[in-house]
Amino acid sequence: MPDFVAECGMRGMPAEPDGRLDGPAFHRNHNAIWSAIGGFLSRQSGDVLELGSGTGQHSTAFARRSPHLTWWPSDIYHSHLASIEAWRRHTGLANLRAPQRIDLADPHWTWTADARAGGTLTAMLCINVLHISPWYVSQNLIAGAGRTLRDGGRLFVYGPFMRDGAHTAPSNAAFDATLRAENPDWGVRDLRDLNERAEMAGLTPADITAMPANNLVLAFTRADRQN
Ligand SMILES: C[S@@+](CC[C@H](N)C(=O)[O-])C[C@H]1O[C@@H](n2cnc3c(N)ncnc32)[C@H](O)[C@@H]1O
């Protein structure tokens, strides 16, 4: 394991010679996240797209745990894309595809499938992105899930969230204030607002799984299109 860290925000960070970055949060959260998403994913086949993959460690770890699925990591920053690719080469996982540059600031963002994948997704995963980006990134993520998930497919989102206008813990309120001081467009999102956008996109309201440190995994399911 590399002996450096990347906070995986907007700043450049040192890398291993091959470009691999190591995010400290990954080590704290990946087992808990898998416990929330692995039950669904273990029963599925097809393709999983991760948005805002950062170092690439989540896609790499989860691809290792689900060889029956094909994982597609993505991000916007060159150093992150390089890290994701370096982890892919380092592990040699056959079911982990090369990273794509997908910018959720673009309302028309698309995923580039290969011929086998066909174009619809079994699942999407977005970890610790929505609070370090403007609200329209959340809107575009959910709208894109409505376009791209197959019927019954799921969008999983991990992070801190408010519920009905209230923070779930004082530490989340303090974190939210820090984020907004750094960038007024950032901040902890409210589950109520996400559910509103989900309904507009043809997704169910979120199923919620509580995570350590006052985080949540939200699971939105793509409703059948013929209904
Ligand atoms: C806090 S890091 C989390 C990274 C990774 N998911 C993790 O949990 O370790 C936030 C990530 O969101 C990405 N990001 C920020 N704005 C984005 C956008 N508009 N579209 C896609 N990704 C974005 C950043 O490049 C960064 O990798």
Percent of residues in beta strands: 15-25%
The backbone outline, from C-alpha atoms, is: globular
Main sheet: which strands, in order across?
A: 2-1-5-6-10-9
> Gyration radius, to the nearest Å?
17 Å
Helical run tally: 6
User: Distance between the terminal alpha carbons, to the nearest Å?
Assistant: 48 Å
Structural class: alpha/beta
Biggest β-sheet description: 6 strands, mixed
Q: List how many beta strands DSSP finds.
A: 10
Question: What pattern of helices and strands is seen along the backbone?
Answer: HEHEEHEEHEEHEHEE
- Helix proportion range: 25-40%
Uncertain segments of ≥5 residues (pLDDT<50)?
1-7
Q: Averaged pLDDT, please?
A: 93
List all distinct small molecules, including ions and cofactors, that are bound in this structure: S-adenosylmethionine
How does the SSE layout of this entry go?
Layout: H1 24-42, E1 46-51, H2 57-65, E2 69-72, E3 74-75, H3 78-91, E4 100-101, E5 121-127, H4 135-148, E6 149-159, E7 161-162, H5 170-182, E8 189-190, H6 191-200, E9 207-211, E10 215-221
Parallel strand pairs: 1-2, 1-5, 3-4, 5-6, 7-8
Antiparallel strand pairs: 6-10, 9-10
The structure holds S-adenosylmethionine (SAM).
Throw out a few tags for this protein.
two-stranded parallel sheet, binds S-adenosylmethionine, alpha/beta, single chain, disordered N terminus, globular, 227 residues, 6-stranded mixed β-sheet
